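Notes from the pairing session

We agreed to fold both candidates in a single pass and log them together. This is the raw record for the first candidate, unedited. Please don't reformat it; downstream parsing expects exactly this layout.

Candidate A
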Amino acid sequence: MNMLDKYIAEVGKHLPHKNRQDLQKEIRSTIQDMLDDRSQQSGKPIDEALISQVLQEYGAPAKVAAAYQPTRYLIGPRLYPFFEMVVKIVLSVLAVVGLIRFGISFADGGATGAAFFAALGKYGLEWLAGMISAFGNIVLVFAILERVLPASEFEEEAEKWSPAELDALPDPDKVARAELIFESIFILLGLALFNLYPDLIGFMMVKDSTWVYVPALSEAFFRYLPWINLLGLLQIVLNLYLLRRGYRQTLTDLFSLATEAAGVVLAFVMLTGPSLISVEQDKLAEILGEPSGVVLGLFSVVPLIVLGILVVVQSIEVIQIIRRLLRRRSQI
């Protein structure tokens, strides 16, 4: 076996068995043509030195074989959009379930202070392990689908694309008016509730055929209320401006970045500060009896869950705004 035979055999080791022989013949033919051309140009016969020179130029066997195979993906472009959507849905559901589970456990245990953060850390690690496990299972399923689903189904979809669809692609700087309207209404209702009807936030139960109401907001909450009002009104003003303009720009993004970052800071301060719930347990016990401790514990953890979600959501908003600013800057 000469050097060329050994080379072809080595290339074959990296080729799929299905069409290995045909590819080896094709590669051998190509190299042989190169050798014949080189021999005619130099006027020298084909020998080991010439073969070695040509093979050196042709490339390493593994690299040559890779050129005859499709790009290898764990999850390829045809399935990745579906994979991304499933991951978002599953991880979001797991996050909500984890928060509910933690809230129930906290209500049962009634942990406070250091015990609360210890429990939070424990459930955080368990939640992270669950997330990683779920993500791994999703990757495994889609990796299998990538190898068993026929590519023709996706190729047919790609062939249906028309340049006319470009007109339907959304402008990344164009605002979603419905979303801004809904957000502004939600903020207004929240501010009205906190400022005009704060007593509505509490416990309302029936005792001896009579409705009994127990307010829940603590004095600490009302110390934060001016800042909540300020950030809420600034957000409404920004939304109204964007509704009128229809597009985001650098100035509005910088303003939005400042308000969102301030919101994250405020939510974090409220999360780590004094309790936002203040209920007279004796009065609650008169109404509910023995279950009052569990109900109070569950109600006390609700603000923590809400603020935690708020911190995450606003942090994501901050990241998205920064990405828009960087994208706009790169286009200048």
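Candidate B (folded immediately after A)
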Amino acid sequence: MDCCNVDTDKKYDLIIIGGGSAAFAAAIHADSMKKTTLMINGGLPFGGTCVNVGCVPSKFLIRAAESIHHASTSNFNGVTTAKPKINFAEIIKQKTALVDDMQQSKYMDLLPGLPHLKVIEGKAKFADKNIIEVNGELYEGYKIIIATGATTLIPEINGINDVPYLTSTTLFELEEQPQSLIILGAGYIALEIAQAYHRMGTKVTIIQRSKSILSKEAKDVSDELEKHLTAEGITIHTGSTLNKVWKEGDNIRISYTTLTGETEVIESSDILVATGTKGNTADLGLEKLGIETTERGLIKVDELLRTSAEDILAIGDVTTNPPFVYTAAYEGGKAVVNAFKAHHKAVDFSVVPWVVFTDPQVAGVGIDEREAEEKGIPHQVTVFHLKDIPRSIVALDTRGFIKLVRNPENDLLLGARIVAPEGGELLMQLSLMIKYRIPLKEIIGMFHPYLTLSEGVKLAAMSFTVDVKKMSCCAS
């Protein structure tokens, strides 16, 4: 590069900016190809969002809260329940130990087995197209992969920066349980946190701008989940416009306008911002390279994960692709292949299963009826309620439904949406049906163990053509 002189020992085949799941997947793949690689990590510890402040700690707390809920409630006559004693600080201590252990075993312990990889910590920025500056030193990469992830997007609300708001990152570090919590937003992160902390004894209120929670989903899905969350005691205000936030005494107050135009004020000991994310790109210097980003700082990439700048790719949550840890890891391997091999591999996100880990869970794969309508695809919808599934009946827990969308012209599954306890466990059968174009009649013809939730998929598929409720048990 004309602008900079880089020492020979600081030149690499590949530089990866970031240290999360996507970055590690790319580094492991590059090492298998014997590519000299430099990984530069700043911000969160190595392992990134998922292990440190996302998937691992949140699912731990969700399960902890579930155990509290199950101990204190029962649908069965003759079962006596009691409110369990909760040591919140001890729960957080165990969470932290688990995170530390997984961060070490799944990330740091891998480094000695990657001889072609060097890692350094520090904030990276582009000095030129293939040159990165970090800690005052310059490094050159023949190819560069950006995997800097995403962080909470703080909305423009009057007073928000004058109060000690929490994010999903800082909330999980609190050793003292919030007495009350106002959550701004009603996406999957907000809802998972809301239910977990409510079940641990925090008074939770959700304020959402859209008219429904999980606003990207069809109304029947969001309405079903909202019904069960409110039944547990979580307060949800949808269709609300936030006006002002301020601190008064020990509490935080929020003024908002309801859907009917009335102004309300509520207060809480703590406030959590969960209104979406933005890409960690602000200080990378992408603008001088002409790398295109969205308004939220997410990097635009093509099907080969290439940015608008030659030799620079992007992967994981910092891109506009699906923001899941498993898609990030998938992109890591693909990006290295596309960077160094002539035979490129396009990413395919047509069959990506996803789960919201509330109780009941919300899970999906493929398209729903709205997208089928928009795309002009012939479609038929069936909604099969858990009250008609034997497993759910005997468990005395019939919350939710299984919704299937098929093309009636070829009997192929287009997509599915599930609201059910542990409903995410049904996704892989449905995902395989879509990916390998297995007609529903084939699933109907297969044995499904009686009194399993997976039998519900078979019954839902049958309900396209027969009234399952008029059949005897196990009939097919």
